[in-house]
Amino acid sequence: MELFHQVYSLRLSGRLYLAPITQNPRKILDVGTGTGIWALEVGDLYPNAVVIGNDISPIQPRWVPPNVKFEIDDFNEPWVQPQGTFDFVHAREVHGAVEDWPQFCREAFKVLKPGGWIEVAESAVQLASDDATLPLDCALNSWLRNISDGFEQLGCTAVVGPHIEAWLRGAGFEHVRVEVFKLPVGLWPTDKTERDIGAFNLLNMIEYVEGASLQIYTKVLKKSLDETRKSIMDVQAEFKRKDFHMYIPYYVAYARKPLSSI
Prior knowledge:
Elements lengths: L1 H10 L15 E5 L5 H9 L4 E6 L12 E5 L13 E7 L8 H11 E12 L15 H15 L10 H8 L2 E11 L7 H29 L4 H15 L7 E10 L6
Parallel strand pairs: 1-2, 1-4, 2-3, 4-5
Antiparallel strand pairs: 5-7, 6-7
Helix pairs in contact: 1-6, 3-5, 4-6, 6-7
């Protein structure tokens, strides 16, 4: 997860978020915090703020700054925080775990103060190429279809980016904006920054392919271990190909709870 964080940091030029927060937030919620790296860094950025990171898995560090707190919580259940608690709610890469996105957005709306901001950042479960160097029938595209099918069978929506604006508006948010970035994968870019992002992202994806495939292929799609291992090797090999000029679309959506909300 730290590698993913490095990729996003490079892509956003070191910024931790894009939401146009004009005043120092006093209470921040990081939903699905994972290892807690974003919560820790935003806690350092705002030392006078209280930062809470929640996740269903207790994989966060035990020793943290006094203004950062981690909680075990399931965001698919009704959120336990009181209404109007937070100035900023942040969620990143939770698409493999959210069972009901409209409800997720409504819960975030509830716990935000009037005028508070939400930001949701999600990578697409797809690869794209601007120069048609990624064949439609490659192992990568087949693998992505299987991973998406697996997410759907688990009750989680794999395709988030194109819908997040409608979900946020449906929950009552205003000033909704969605920015889409390209996350190159591999060493093919000629620009140094793009190449650095591609190098980190390649390491991310090589690692992610094995973990996701072993979970989705064997436990959800009921594929044999031999078939799964072959798919892993084929996909990892294609990720390393410099002639595949591929990238992952990365959606960052942010919106404000109206000041008139009660």
